[in-house]
Amino acid sequence: MNYLIGVDLGTSGTKTVLFDTAGNVMASKTVEYPLYQPHNGWAEQDPMDWWNATAVTCKSVIEESGVDPADIKGVGLSGQMHGLVMLDADNKLLRRSIIWCDQRTAKECEEITEKVGAERLIEITANPALTGFTASKILWVRNNEPDVYAKCAHILLPKDYVRFMLTGEYATEVSDASGMQLLDVPNRCWSDEVLEKLEIDKSLLAKVYESPEVTGYITPEAAALTGLKEGTPVVGGAGDNAAAAVGTGVVEDGKAFVTIGTSGVVFAHTSDISIDPKGRVHTFCCAVPGCWHVMGVTQGAGLSLKWYRDNFCTAEMETAKGMGKDPYFLMDQQAARVPIGCNKLLYLPYLMGERTPHLDPDCRGVFFGLSAIHTKYDMLRAVMEGVTFSQRDSVEVLREMGVQIDEMLACGGGGSSPLWRQMLADTFNCEVKTVVSKEGPALGVAILAGVGAGIYKSVEEGCRAVIRTNPPQAPVAENVPEYEKFYQIYRGLYPALKDSYHNLAAL
Known about the structure:
Layout: E1 3-9, E2 13-20, E3 25-32, E4 44-45, H1 47-65, E5 72-79, E6 85-87, E7 97-98, H2 106-116, H3 118-125, H4 134-144, H5 146-151, E8 154-156, H6 158-167, E9 171-173, H7 174-177, E10 183-184, E11 189-190, H8 192-198, E12 207-209, E13 214-217, H9 220-226, E14 233-235, E15 238-239, H10 240-247, E16 254-260, E17 264-270, E18 282-285, E19 292-298, H11 302-312, H12 314-323, H13 327-336, E20 346-348, E21 366-368, H14 376-400, E22 405-411, H15 412-415, H16 418-428, E23 431-433, H17 441-452, H18 459-466, H19 479-506
Parallel strand pairs: 1-5, 5-15, 9-12, 16-22, 22-23
Antiparallel strand pairs: 1-2, 2-3, 4-7, 6-8, 10-11, 13-14, 16-17, 17-19, 18-19, 20-21
């Protein structure tokens, strides 16, 4: 029997899962590690923690399953995007990695925009200069730690550092490289123009592969530490969202997924590149060779519901504890008793500013229409509907760009709520499904490893062989126009409040 390994390098920990070729989980192991915040707004991690976690988890799943390492035909890597790993000429780490959520690089983003040009930057990299992306981090090190930058011989992304430790190869792949702001996203290669304008030596960067391509093989040293067999192929893999797309089967036109975690994501596959000239959504190369994905982000999705739970639902939390239930289960039951529109109450989920479609760090959350008739359960449902409307904003931008969405998969904590899924189906006016497997990114990169190992002929074929979905929730015909009425009012609130948000922020 043949097996595949998916390694998912997250921010809180690394999870390694061993699958058979039908996608069944044979063993799974997670190891956590710390986040360092030396200053307000900074975020760093030690790449050696990622490597140690990978070695421990690989060894664990092999031992727990009893699988012969010779039967493991490939390894796929998924990971947090945008982190900066710098090595010297002897492959020693020069500093801790500045990771995706670090916010120190505002000045460097201005520098990038000035040197490349705002419009040209979006044309080449498909995105405006953002503090989360890797290019601004490289410039920050050069501007603030010139001694470190002078010694730098190799720049890698988080999962690609783990790849280097497994294979000895400096390699990346198109989906993760898209988030560096140095890749020519339409042409799927490093941009000589951006590198020249930013004065970054191309030799520092790794070779770029497509996601299912073999990038290297397990070395004897890595085999001793991980339990993997020497010579096992390691494929390109994918950034976390691109890997999740493969793990949910979103690898063909018309398919999309919506995630309601702390933040919210609407992610759609497209075989024709489409770039928003306003920079409201991300366009990246996806894990399917020759294809792209477009992604809208809501900053405060599940975060809004958690904030409401923690501040207003103490009784439900206590009751749920006594019943051995999740508080969100009880909250769902209460919200389901409230009519669509929450008795004319709307919520704007801008607790952390907003990304799509407003690109406004100053906007903040709002309850609109509050009156003496309203209860805390009206407010609870309004929070859920407001997050749904914010996801609809992303869908509308994608539709405006010509990206087709016929089928939506729901992921993340919010996706486990039947009520929230029905809101999504009714508001988007399309079917919403869930995937049987909960492994997401790890399963996605295991499928990519199967393509690289020749087990599946293509990413699409691998997904058809492995991904199974639960019965869909279809939109309820009479609900669709009801949500539409409230969504149109919701859309008008941000423009009406925009100046007030900025005046408040300036106080």
